[in-house]
Amino acid sequence: MTLHSLIHSLGSALCMALLLCMGTGASGAESINSDALHAEIHVVTEELPPYNMTRDGVLTGMSTEVVQAVLKEVNVQASIQSMPWARAYDLALHTPNVLIYSITRTAEREHLFKWVGTIAASRWFLYSSASHPVTLLSLDDARDWQTATVNEDVGEQYLMARAFEIGHQLQSSNRYEFNYQKLQTGHVDLWISDELNAYYLARQVGDDPARTLVQSLRVKELEEAGGFNMALSTGTPDATVQLFQKALETIRANGTYDAIARKWQ
């Protein structure tokens, strides 16, 4: 083989090796992105009107529409299942590739999920009935009264973390509307709830919340948590989480989020 032929052969081999390396790298990057985009995502939530609720057999609400917009942005088709909060929470805690909403981001929950971002603001209160108003100067004052909570929701977790006990000061149920009924019928003295949820449930039974509900104590610690969020289970790949985070940022930037929020104001 001549020197010229040898150089030509080595050059061709080198070029082929470089092309193979480049091809492998591109394929790997594409595969990672593809896996993140096409991972089977299970979406779970609860009946928390007006954020997430079933109306005429269709799941809707402000938070639901935001989640649907994010799913569309990442090009992931996923059905959303509504179930009691304790079940949804348990699934998101222990099953990979589960998206849960509307969930409050607290210090206790911080490392239990991979957080996508805030989808709705919230204001929390301990409510009493206007027919039996309760004056509270501090949270400790609530220990003398019976408070309605929802099983494993952030209000119940907040109170239990401060030594309130189910069966003692707390009466736990699995649906928010049950708690409004308990309050108005005198079965409990207080009810911990998000403001929009409380007002919506009052109006659903024909009541004027301004006349039937008293905001006995504002729970600012829950508001400081940043509102309601989307979160993914810890077994979800980071690449998937990043795609969802980017999608939420995108719908905020392009006006989609604001349009949804205005619709539900």
Automatic annotation (TrEMBL):
PANTHER family: PERIPLASMIC SUBSTRATE BINDING PROTEIN FAMILY 3, SOLUTE-BINDING PROTEIN FAMILY 3_N-TERMINAL DOMAIN-CONTAINING PROTEIN. Pfam families: SBP_bac_3. Residues 1-28 form the signal peptide. Keywords: Signal. InterPro entries: Solute-binding_3/MltF_N. It comes from the Bacteria. SMART domains: PBPb. It comes from Pseudomonas graminis. Residues 40-265 form the Solute-binding protein family 3/N-terminal domain. This is Solute-binding protein family 3/N-terminal domain-containing protein.
